[in-house]
Amino acid sequence: MAAPDPPHDRNDPAWDHIDPDHPEPWKGCIRRGLCCMSNPGWFAPGEAEKAAEVMGMEMADFVNAFLVVDHAKTTIGVIEGFVPAKMGPGGDHVETPGTKTGPSYKFTQGRCVFYTGTGCLIYEARPFECTRYACTNMPEDNPSRLELAMLWLQAHDATVEASQDSAD
Known about the structure:
Layout: H1 47-54, H2 59-66, E1 67-74, E2 77-84, E3 86-87, E4 111-112, H3 128-132, H4 145-167
Antiparallel strand pairs: 1-2, 3-4
Helix pairs in contact: 1-2
């Protein structure tokens, strides 16, 4: 039985933004770590807790060792979420884990704190953005920070609603 044709034509100009060394971009991620070495992905609400469990840590210790709170400006205001800390070229954190990021954080490239050079320490509990992002996608086909910010906002609203219900 012959292999099915790939869903994308490799000669299509829409693929020009892809690394030319990517052997078969229509197959998606081949775990080279290019994304992991430049900009860690955001966790969706509830995911950081799963990653802490994978690492065998309490959530507060996990945050203070590995995560920062990043922000996204949206049409409804600034939304914050957990993101793995970035490591600078010398192996130091770009921002101190357990703190909020500064304004230049999103413009600073840095390796994800969980990337080992051969893979992800928390692969089975990696962030939402990491599970859905593919360097072979057109940018609009990958999760947006607005999409993630909305998930955080919805989780916040649900928490506020639940605490108000329990106070009644």
